[in-house]
Amino acid sequence: MRSRRVTTAAFATAFLASGWIVAGPAEGAEMHGSVAQVIQVLPAFDNPEGAIFSADGTHVFVSNAAELGDKTEGLAWGEGIGYISKLKVLESGKLEMVEPKLIDGLTAPLGMGVLPVATGTFPKGTIFACVGSAPFRTATGEAVTDPARMRTKLLAFDESGKVLGEIDTGSGSIFEEINGSPVLLINALGFDGDGNLYFADTAFGGDQFEPKFEGKPGLWKIPAASLDALAAGEKPAEMPTFLMVPGFPDGVEVSPKDGMVYVNTVGPVAGAPDPANGGIYAVSDMTAALPAPVDRDLGALDGLDFTAGGTMLNSQIKGDVPVAITVTCPGGKSTALAFDPETTLSGPADVAIRRSSGAQLMVIPELTARDSTPGDDEVTVVLLPADFDGACMK
Ligand SMILES: [Ca+2]
Ligand SMILES: [Ca+2]
Ligand SMILES: [Ca+2]
What we know:
Elements: H1 8-18, E1 21-23, E2 36-45, E3 48-53, E4 59-64, E5 77-78, E6 82-89, E7 95-106, E8 112-114, E9 127-131, E10 136-137, E11 153-157, E12 163-168, H2 174-179, E13 186-191, E14 197-201, E15 218-222, H3 227-231, E16 241-244, E17 249-254, E18 261-265, E19 280-283, E20 301-306, E21 312-316, E22 325-328, E23 334-336, E24 339-340, E25 343-345, E26 352-353, E27 360-365, E28 377-384
Parallel strand pairs: 2-24, 5-10
Antiparallel strand pairs: 1-25, 2-28, 3-4, 4-6, 6-7, 8-9, 9-11, 11-12, 13-14, 14-15, 15-16, 17-18, 18-19, 20-21, 21-22, 22-23, 26-27, 27-28
This protein binds calcium ion (CA) (3 copies).
One calcium ion binds next to strand 13, strand 17 and strand 20.
């Protein structure tokens, strides 16, 4: 590849151009045979990027990335004004706000994941969130050029909002020691069943600093046994490992079906070079070469999650691509998700699915690009009918 460089300006321009994405019967696209029922649109957020269900499925946490909108010319998250909301899942599947700002004062909270096992430091069910990413500016829109001020990290908290610890991935961290670049855009994370943590660095945003620098887009693995040492600021016995992923990886999740780590790419949203042109990779070995993508040419992918039956759903944020959510049956090619009633999604980002038998709830945060009115951006809740995974067999 000639260059992996993409400018913050290009990223922002693409977001500006991406506009509103209309989800519904996408012309020409093959549709999945089971239709998502839209049960709620909740306009109560500020550029919501990520959603996650609590371990017992009774609550949903939403990350509000707080993009600055008309305070800046280019896309930038506001330093220290991002937050995480807590909502309760009602019997109907609808969500009810419990605490709009459960955790406040964050920069660019994005994807989240739930720890499936206990470590010495973190109880089972601890929520980890990606925070601190570039591109960001001060809350009033002033430029930030000191790279030391970029504190990307994994923030760990419990369901009451109590912060239990954090793992530094920014300037001077072990992650920079390993591959020569601090983590620039820590976008999403997922755990496997043993508690190993995987996260994606999209690595946009190095242009805001002086001197400018290029990040390294790719997938990181933190062994479960190393979480505590890293949170204590110590060198772990087993170091994190890095796998370069071209095309600017964004969403990541471990399949409950085959145990592989799936990661998608968002590069095309910024016109950035992406050999998969909005694709999905399945990784089983962090030390082997990246395999060919399992699917490609899907637009600009953001979120990624699985149903109980191992059906994969990816969200798509490029405005000129009509399919907003793709559905990929195990071993199959991707189709489009249809909604009833038809709905408008404004940048569907890091989706969450509550895996269960019967109908499964899916929460879709809409990142709403460059929005200037905080507090009214949407999260859409849909029900994937009981026959959703079964429709893969037909
Ligand atoms: Ca905003
Ligand atoms: Ca994302
Ligand atoms: Ca708004």
